[in-house]
Write a structure and sequence with these properties.
This protein has 74 residues and is an alpha+beta fold. Strands 2-1-3 form a three-stranded mixed β-sheet, with no helix packed on it. Strand 1 and strand 2 form a beta hairpin.
């Protein structure tokens, strides 16, 4: 395994998607929670956000940038 492949694999493992309970404030100021798919590294356990729109659901920027190397030509 080359160093490049090893580094990419470690990034994928570090920034993998996990389902976590995430909290945010609703428009009325009440706290809401849901179990959402988020980056296991970028969104720590028991995270809270100012609003639902600010919850970084899905792959983080690191994974999206890593995926650019595998994008098919258009």
């Amino acid at each position: 395994m080359t160093a490049d492949i090893d580094a990419r694999q470690r990034l994928l493992e570090l920034h993998g998607i996990v389902y976590r309970d995430v909290m945010w404030l609703a428009a009325d100021g009440a706290e809401e929670t849901a179990e959402l798919p988020v980056c296991g590294h970028c969104v720590p356990r028991h995270s809270s956000f100012p609003s639902r729109a600010e919850v970084p659901e899905g792959p983080c920027l690191t994974l999206r940038l890593l995926a650019l190397a595998f994008r098919l030509p258009q």
